[in-house]
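Final report, closing paragraph on structural work. Over the funding period we assembled a curated collection of sequence-structure pairs, and we close with a single example.
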Amino acid sequence: MPSMPRPRTFLAALMLGAGLLALTPAARANALYDYGDRNAARIVSLLHGAPGQSVFHMVQIGDSHTAGDYFTDYLRTQLQQRLGDGGIGWAMPMYASGQRLARVGYETEGWELLNSRNAGEADYPFGGMIARGTGVGGQLTLKTKADDSPQQNVTALISQAAGDPPLHVFDADSEVQDIKAKRADGSWSQATFTARLPFIVTTEGSPNTRIGGWWMTSARPGAIVSAVGINGSELAQWDRWRSGWMDDLAVGKPDLIALAYGTNEAFRGNLDPQDFRRTLATAIDQLRAKFPHSAILIIGAPESLSSLRGGACGQRAPSLNAVQQEQRAVAKEKHTLYWDWQQAMGGGCSMRKWVNQKLARKDGVHFSQEGYERAADDLLVGLLHLRGGAVR
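Its predicted structure, as stored:
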């Protein structure tokens, strides 16, 4: 079951009630930095528009910190209370072991998951996962975890070959629809329909029919926050996705694209900082070329420990310092937004304190639900007090 929305922290409530404040670096109340993102002013306009008047879509792409959807669900809940519910957003094609989405659950029979992190070669679409039918009578159900049954405008990323039968969709209103890929040549395209959750997708068993993910939006404007994560992933693994995967992302029309990688890279003792920097800089260049009107946010890797023992602070992940330094350097060089997760935790030597306060888990890497929400609140305050055009 999804967590119930928590009230804003005292700090967030106080600052939001006071309106936009011009904060100097010395008086910073959050860890968000604007290094001159050219679309920051547009984000300001969207976040401070009247409820139900515009769409704001944040897409966060990353590792397990994203794949758990606790951090992003806090942002989703708060922004939708402020701007209206713009829809569910991105959903992975089917359930992935050890991962969760706060708003969507799955039931599957006769489908298998391919994951770009560990399932070898495939033409993975955006998100890096594929659901593939394995036999006659395959059934895939997408259901809501809330008490409601929201109607959504759905775009499925789908791949079919010539002669593949259509997929049958049965929704909560007992509507029955057949959907097919726009192109029946084995490449990735889209199929769109409107359905009320839960809905069931069945296949007649063609092994060539594949689903790469779902975009879901409501009929009304509002906020959407999409969590697109894979446990254990690194940014460099984008190379395993098909060359046109940004076309899949474009279907979601992102306003703010957040890159939340670095934790897994930080545990590689042989990390080449310059190689990591080139990978990150290239990713931003590619996103900027494809999405010239979207703001880009680099989320700095939080403090993570290879051991809670050792000195007063425990033992930091061996390459964490290098990862954090390169992330901030690229943010400055490419003029993006940058959120310093470690600063939001209280600075270096903070993970053991978070573990002791039950804000982080005993692995010294991941956070409790409350810990993710506390961190997300810092980013939320920063976004809501973003001025645009200011290099801080």
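The mean pLDDT is 90. DSSP finds eleven helices and 19 strands in the chain. We thank the funder for supporting this effort.
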